């Protein structure tokens, strides 16, 4: 991503609490997305928290996108929004059991069966 004005982070970005094995090994990010997060994630986190002031138009737009995610244009912005959703949003949990209980239950116990004898 050499065509971007976005600053590289001062250090490589990792999230060992939510993605302890790395972004790509989590299955949620591609290798290219992992590379972008590790290179630019420190800067994006600083811009989001207000620790870093935007230097150029691309970084200013990034800060606006954080307030209004529908305006995301660049790959950096979309990947950071994806990271926020996965790291800070609720995890989806799928189960085989339904949430609703059956309305009527029938009794199929042995003593309710009538047997006719000759």
Automatic annotation (TrEMBL):
Residues 105-118 have a biased composition (Acidic residues). InterPro entries: DUF413. Belongs to the MaoP family. Residues 95-118 are annotated as: Disordered. This is Macrodomain Ori protein.
């Amino acid at each position: 991503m050499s065509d971007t004005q976005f600053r590289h982070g001062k250090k490589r970005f990792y999230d060992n609490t939510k993605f302890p094995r790395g972004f790509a090994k989590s299955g949620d990010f591609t290798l290219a997305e992992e590379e972008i997060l590790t290179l630019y994630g420190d800067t994006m986190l600083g811009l989001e928290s207000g620790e870093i002031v935007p230097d150029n138009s691309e970084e200013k737009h990034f800060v606006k996108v954080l307030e209004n995610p529908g305006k995301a244009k660049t790959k950096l912005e979309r990947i950071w929004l994806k990271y926020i959703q996965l790291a800070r949003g609720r995890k989806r949990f799928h189960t085989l059991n339904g949430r609703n209980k059956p309305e009527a239950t029938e009794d199929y116990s042995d003593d309710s069966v009538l047997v006719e004898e000759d």
